[in-house]
Each structure stands twice: as C-alpha cells, then as structure tokens.
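Reviewer 2 asked us to include a model.

Predict the structure of this chain.
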Amino acid sequence: MNNQDAAKKKVAIIGAGVTGINAAWKLIDLGYDVDVFEKRDVVGGVGTSVMKNGYAFEYGPHLFHTAFDDILDDFKELMKNEPYEKTILDRQIKYMGKNYKYPLKLINVLKGLGFLTSIKCGFSFSYSHLKLKLGLTRDNTAEDWFINRFGKVGYEIYFKDYTKKVWGIDPTDLSPIFTNSRIPTISIRKMIKELLVPKKTIIKETDNEGDHIYAPDINYIYYPHKGMWVLTDKIKDKVLEKGGRVHYGADVKKINFQDSFAKSIDFSIKGVEQTQEFDYIISTIPLKGIIHLIGLEKPEDVIEASERLKHRAIVVACLVINKPKVIDAQVLYFNDKNFNRVTEPKNLGLKVDPDSHTVILVEFTCDVGDDVWNNSEKYSDYVIDELIKEKLITKEEILSAHTIKYPHAYPIYSIGYEQRLKSIEKFFSRFPNLYTTGRQGLFTYVDKDICMKMGKILADYINDGNDMKQDIPDIGGEKVFF
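Predicted model (structure tokens):
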C-alpha cells in the first residue's frame, strides 16, 4: 500500500503502552491517520516512569537492550537529543550473605556454597544434565525444567522458593514454557569455552541470541539519564508531530461490528460520550478487557479462557537516599526476603540531582486486593527495616519513601495457559481488521525492544494489505498478534 492509499485509512489504537505507541509511530510514518486511546494520563504502560518530587521512579529495572539492529537504530534516533548511558548489565543474587553473578555461572556457584554443598550441587547438576541429554527426562512443569538444567540441589537452593514468591504459585503449577523463554541456563560448553578462550575485546552493541531471543546474552544496556519514561515520551512526540492524536483519560466502552469487520468504537473522554469509525483497530490492553469490548456474542470457552489468564501485580517501594550509592550491582535479587529484588537506577544511568543522593526501587509481586496491594505503605516500612538489617542504608539516610503499583505487571504462565491462548487466537482470527498485540494483548512476558518490534511488524503487515490474517509473522516462535 502506498502512502496515498494509506492516508485514507484510519487506525484506532487502544492502549498506549510500548507496543501501542510504537505501532502508532510506524503507521503514521506509513501515511495512516492514527488515534491512540489511553485510559491513564501517560504513555508507556508498565515501562514508563512515575515522577514524584522531581525523582523518576519505575516498576523495577526497566532498562533497554535489543537483539535487533533496526530497533537499536530507532532508539538512537529517538535519543539523539537526549543523553543516555551505555553499560554492561550487572545483576546479582544474594544468598546466605553472599552475592552471585546472574545469570548463574557454575564455577562461582560452587565456590560460594562450601565444600560439601558444592559437591552435592555439582553431582546433582551433572546427573540432571546427563539425563536431559539422553532424553530420559521431560519438561512437564517449570520445576522439571529447573531440575533438568540446574540439578535438584541447585533448584532447591536458588529457584524453588524464589519462583513461588514471585509468581504466587508452586513451580509444579507453572508451565515450562515460561522458564524456557525467560531463564538463562548454565551451559557446560560455554563454561569451558570461557575458561579456555580469552574474552573478546570487541563487543557488539546488539544482544547475542543465546538460547532464545526472549532471554538473550545481553551485551549492552541503554538507559536515558532522565529515566525510561523518556523513550516512550519521545515516540509519543513523533506521533503528535506527524499529525497523530493521543487521547488521555479515554474510556473505550465498545467495539462495534458490521459482519466480521470492526467498524467503530464507543468511548468517553472527560464524561463526553463519542463514537468514531475506523478502518483498523489495534488493542494492547489485557485480553480479558478487549474481549469484553467486542460487541458480538462471545463463545463461552473464550470468555472462560480470558478469565483464567491471570496477571501478577507489582508494588514498588521507592526510596530516596541521602547517599551516592547503595548497592554494587544494578539489580540485586533476594531469596530470603518478602520482596523480590532491589534496583538502583543510578547504577543503570539515571542522573539524580544532587549527585550525593540516589534512588532505590524495591519490588514486591502480589495479587490485586491482597495485603501487599492494599497495605503497600506497611511493606515499604518492612523494606526499610530489611535494608537497614542488610547494612545497606541507615534510618537517617532516608529522605523520602513512596509506593507505586501496577495491576497487570507479569502474565502467570500456569499449566494449561497455552490451550487457553489458542482458543482466544482462534476467536480473533474471525476479525480481519481487529488485532490484539503487545505484552498485555498477547499475554506474554517480553521486554521493551520486543514490544517495539511487535508494533513495527504489525504496522508493516497492515500496510502490506494482509487483511485476512494469513501468514502471521512471529518473533522467536511467538506470534506478533492475534
């Protein structure tokens, strides 16, 4: 489709997360007339920053890295007038008073566990690795996956309790697809190579693929000095500069159809009810939400499937500390605390004014309506007490404390979620011009660069005239849209 044809086409995008706002930018570049409808007053979804008293707080370590040259080029174009940091990612796990590099390296793990436990861990790892190579074991659950790649001893030390804490369910109830797509593994071949072959002095800017594209070997991370909100805000500026519209506080009520084609949406902004027609409608909100908006009869199995796809919520205790630095790593995971991890954005590249201060983000995963969600201030006090016990801060160094929360932070890949997604995908195949995509819209746990890539691919797909949803493109084996 050329730009003259595209200019006649109107596109509605419901949700201004990373995927939605990037799809808007790419569609406008292709000549489409785009309206973005966002319920909140900011773009970026879970990937943005929350500003309080001049400090940028985020929902955990939302840095930028990518395996895609074109997405890195887009990042640099967006950041050409914005300073950013380019660093090597430094994540660590704290266990029994010692810090271990993450992803785990077998040599470091064994050194830190003590002689007897190291022997047990080494034998357990070797036994499980051999069974996996010989095809004598299968990955039926996340627990199986962990044991098959780290050994039962290593699994019980590092992963069992932490996984249950983060996801709120036992690893025996989690799908192995989650672990396979998100957890870097210990590779014996890679370990031997690292011992025998000196590291290359030249490192690519883009990620290596590693075992899979969703958990690659990260070479560099990029972080705007002002905070990650800058990235999606710059994309939003591109949308507005080129004639697109972003409607904040927009409450989409219904998607209207003519036969199988989505024709218009009913929405309200500041209490004013409106209806507007579109040629294409793209949703990046949670699947349960978009299915509810479809103004047609929905099969019971589709409704049930969407109801059973659950998300883990997040609460972040945000502390401003009168100290230039608190942790040595950028991200520090804790196995033995109620919270999951501590992030210090200043170590990623955030510029804090004055430089003698720093910001600490401490993340809890929870369920909407539980005690953590409803009483987040209480858990902020718990964080302070625990960080003081760890001798990372003192009471006197705390300048301020805030909490931020997000209800749909992480999809829970429970056993059977794949079948639920398949029934929903089949349902969406009925609608040639209605697309659901992105982290929320596909119920997938992906990073910013993948979200940007999804938006870009979908824009090209629409522009190529693929109205019947045939040959749907994928990234790393997962479809870009339904």
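The longest strand covers residues 398-411. Residues 102-196 form a domain with the protoporphyrinogen ix oxidase, domain 3 fold (CATH 1.10.3110). We have added this to the supplementary material.
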